[in-house]
Design a protein that fits this description.
About 50% of the residues lie in helices and about 15% in strands.
Length: about 280
Amino acid sequence: MALETEWEAYFEPNSYGFRLGRSCQDAAIKAIFLAIRAKPKYVLNADISKCFNCINHEALLNKLKTLPSLAKQVKAWLKADIMTKLGNNPQYMEIINMGTCGIIFFPLLANIALHGMETALREWALKAHPKKPTPILVRYVNNFVVLHQSREVIEQAQTFLEEWLKCMGLKLHSDKTQIVNTRSGFQFIGFSINHIWKWGRVKTLITPSRESRRRFLEEIRRAIQLSKGKAAYQLIAILVPKIVKWGNYFKYSECSNVFRRLDHDIFQRSEHGYTDGTQHGVVIK
């Protein structure tokens, strides 16, 4: 609580992940939409490799510049032996595999470690390309995009950011980092973002991505399969929270057609893949 209150006063405007009053929708729908709505742009769509595992602890502690007693406590948390504390219980393996990400405050520390990226990029751009618009960086924890109308500027920005990340012991994920144009579209924190021609003008289209839809339907299918033999109301009680949660995440995008298709798919999966032991083809209304 002490660190969050202090650092919220310093965090950069286009940092959105795990911050009070800021959401995925603010990053993907608001910030990126405002940056690309005027004209298509090139995009550096980047992911920081093993961000939660590879942050240089000493560099992070130096960046904190906090009270000695608090710095000592943070260092102790970072060095905690999670394997010893949690053991090899399978239910904890996901936390263990994420390293220090299991600590409840680690997203805050990740934001602190990456703080300054936006400012550094802007200062670099003003020196390297003083006559061109400044690239726009939008970050959600370890996922970020850099937007600019020139591909050359984007390529140089990628090189600069790779060097900047080295000071924190981090690097970009080679398989998940790419440069694309908004006309061909890109994926960001579950959303598909691209430009289309409609009525003779460029329109920004933000929808749930195909991968997000695939994972959602797979989760629904798995829930239905595991509920065979249960009463219909029990299956409904399991599915409703999953559907509402997914729908609330994407409801501010252009999702009406996607939701309609998903309604049909869920209906079909429920009708053909579920039985309550007394009748086949139970339909969820």
